[in-house]
Amino acid sequence: MTKFSTLSRQYWPTLVLFALLLASWQLAVSLGGIREYLLPSPLAVWNALWHGDTAWLPHLWTTTLEIIGAFFLAAVVGVALGVAIAWSPLMANALVPFLVFVNTLPKVAIAPLFLIWMGYGILPNMLMGALIGFFPVVINTAVGLSQVEADMLDLGRVFNAPKWKIFAKIRIPNALPYILSALKITATAAVVGAIVGEFVASQKGLGYVIVTTQSSMNTSVAVRLADRDFRRGARALRRRRRRGASVGAVGRGDRLNSGKASGKGKGKTT
Length: 270
Description:
Blueprint: H1 2-32, H2 42-51, H3 56-87, H4 89-104, H5 107-118, H6 122-146, H7 150-158, H8 163-200, H9 206-215, H10 219-269
């Protein structure tokens, strides 16, 4: 009961805001005489979800696989590139300009190339989502590995720790809050990338359904799909925020303990 009351106090302003928006939307459509193909009412959207002709589960399953694959691909590649940039100044000078160039490319223009190279399927849309979401992970990982307290690095040198051990014991724990903050952005970027890839060319997925319903002026289904994508991204952000807070607290505790150990080590050396 205590947990439920805490959650209700935390989220009731959001629920009230959404309820007011839905009520205003319904009243505007009902009283304003707006045609359904221009702006369907919330009730029309609900009916399109449960009583429409669209087979939702296959499309939902395809888009979910694309989002999960894009997220993990962006996370793994982004962290690996960030470690390479922080490990070697030569790698940083070589990779950073190239990655900035790739990030500035229009992603919609790259999607047809993925289609030509890999054909229809889930993989091109995964790559599109990863391409949109990997850059924040690279930058945040490199920054987190570099923004380390000098005392912590001096402690590693005092104990003659090799470079890889300093990375594993000091730099990577310090970079975890930065990485998790970037993954919050990547979680939503993966949704956008997967949907954009389905817009260009796909035979299944929520993006495919949006394109086909817009061509037939079935706006209620398209609005329902947009709402589904928004809620999926919001849930991913909430999960990442909770994980980031817990890891940040652990990281602060580890740094506090390491600082105490550093003080003892310096006292012994003096």
